[in-house]
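retry 2 of 3: previous attempt timed out while embedding adenosine-5-diphosphoribose. Reduced batch size to 1 and resubmitted. Inputs unchanged:
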Amino acid sequence: MFMKGKRVVVLTGAGVSAESGIRTFRDNDGLWEDYSIEDVATPQAWQANPGRVWEFYQARRRQLHEVEPNPAHTALAALEEGLDDLTLITQNVDNLHERGGSRQVVHMHGQLETLRCENSGRHEVRMNDADLIDEFLVCTCCAEPQRVRPDIVWFGEMPMHMEEIYTAVEACEVFIVAGSSGHVYPAANLVNIAHANGARTVLVNAEPPQNFESFDEVHLGKAGELLPVLVKEWLSSDA
Ligand code: APR
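retry 2 succeeded.
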């Protein structure tokens, strides 16, 4: 389907970073096979055992220096380049969309490369070697330096940028989901909002997700293989 001139929203999940070597969450080799969400991805876990939470995220932050964007990321950057109106929303906390060339990325679940001051709530990029150790770190924004936390939306916390996200999803004419299992809300409901507002909904995923019936068009396979081909088609008028 030809997309030039249309308002397009893309929502990505862990599946688009899988071919870069970053583990997904719910595949059989996913992160939630080895760690329980309650232990490492909730505010309660941070209160009860901050060291374990901190080490879980520091390991994932260190990995950012070892991975590269894959063709799924570069294809989505090409789509942004080729369209006048694209909003890229990601559930992913890695920086591979940006490193793959995407200029505007809405991180609804936070980001690994920034850390957040627990006192002021301000966040800043902290990716030097000294920032990647397993000891706790402090902020640079308070007179009395305060402990910083991962700048991640944990389960039970409000996702970020939701007003901007709902505005874009309600107004879009095409809504594409790539690499997400459709397990986690409110992200998993965005396709239904788009559909209710008349958008054409497109899925690119390795297997049928939870919210499979909400899609008009389904492409099953690897995002790194499918997206480069699909983006060419979406941008060429003779498709
Ligand atoms: N290409 C396309 N899809 C893939 C690939 C691939 N190479 N590899 C895996 N997938 C698909 C899987 O089939 C699965 O449907 O990507 C999806 C990954 O699902 P999850 O692991 O549940 O990741 P995601 O949907 O992003 O999880 C959402 O849950 O734990 C929270 O905050 C975390 O942002 C995350 C949220």
